[in-house]
Design goal:
By secondary structure, this protein is of the alpha+beta class. Helices cover about 30% and strands about 30% of the residues. It has five helices and seven strands. The site of zinc ion (ZN) has 6 residues, from strand 1 and helix 1.
Length: about 160
């Protein structure tokens, strides 16, 4: 068994769609970033790569590369899952927490879980997404951005 951890944060920016967990959420601001700036899928991608000792998302999908400009981050998750399997691992489960003061994430958790399960090719029962606020504290509490943390567990005979 192997475990990986991932963390990511993006600042709000006007004029962009808000995408979290592969779900576009109606909101007055989106998140700034080179790709679609999806903090949840980026944290999950890092957790998977980390568990397989394959580095991080920046190594596999460098920011500044025009191929990834405004990219759908589901692609990162799919490719990370492929590389993890190529290295001889199976994805046992993933768990994540989204940290956001607003908008409310809870109503979208089921849709995010379905997106993640599909991208990883694992059952929805092996994917868990949670959300919490920061009780008004810090940059998330002030509504400056959204963060996410994730863990991934792999099983197998990896290289
Ligand atoms: Zn990111």
């Amino acid at each position: 068994m192997r475990t990986g951890i991932g963390f990511d944060a993006h600042a709000f920016e006007k004029g962009r769609p808000l995408v979290v967990g592969g779900v576009t959420i109606p909101h007055e601001r989106g998140l700034a970033g080179w790709s679609d700036a999806d903090p949840l899928l980026h944290a999950l991608t890092d957790a998977l790569l980390g568990a397989a000792a394959l580095g991080d998302i920046g190594r596999h999908f460098p920011p500044g590369d025009s191929a990834w400009r405004d990219a759908d981050s589901r692609v990162f998750l799919r490719v990370a899952a492929e590389r993890v399997r190529e290295a001889g691992w199976e994805i046992a489960n993933v768990d994540a927490t989204v940290l956001a003061e607003a908008p409310r994430i809870g109503p979208h958790v089921a849709a995010m879980t379905a997106v993640i399960a599909e991208a990883l090719g694992i059952p929805a029962g092996s994917v868990n997404v949670k959300a919490t606020t920061m009780e008004g504290m810090g940059f998330i509490g002030r509504g400056e951005g959204i963060a996410a943390m994730a863990v991934a567990t792999l099983s197998g005979e990896g290289t």
